[in-house]
Amino acid sequence: MLQIIRRPELLKRVGLTDSGLDRAIRDGFVPPPVKLSPDPMRRAVGWPAHEVDEIIVARIAGLDPDATRALVANIVERRVAAVAAQVHGRATA
């Protein structure tokens, strides 16, 4: 079952401050959040728990910065591919 982690929980799990998380996202060490509502007026976002787990494991393993950025890029690519597969699956159903 997929779980979404909201920002306060993410901050606890990865041990960052608000500004530290923003910097980590900007620098490619944490994937950007996903929007939780299709309504553009709503700003609710979260992170898939399994992605957060991957980042934590990478930190524990001591991945160097370039490897961590590559991991985050891969996570984002998999998100895009999963969405494309869902859209394509619905289009042909």
Describe the structure.
The chain is mainly alpha-helical. It has a single domain (4-92), classed as Multidrug-efflux Transporter Regulator, Chain: A, Domain 2 (Orthogonal Bundle). It contains four helices and three strands; from the N terminus they run βααββαα. The chain has helices spanning 7-14, 18-26, 49-61, 65-92, and strands at residues 4-5, 34-35, 45-48. It has a three-stranded antiparallel β-sheet. The longest helix has 28 residues, at 65-92. The model has no long low-confidence stretch (mean pLDDT 92).
In short, what is this structure?
With 93 residues, the chain is mostly helical.
Tags for this model:
single chain; 93 residues; mainly alpha; Multidrug-efflux Transporter Regulator, Chain: A, Domain 2; 3-stranded antiparallel beta sheet; 4 helices; 62% helix
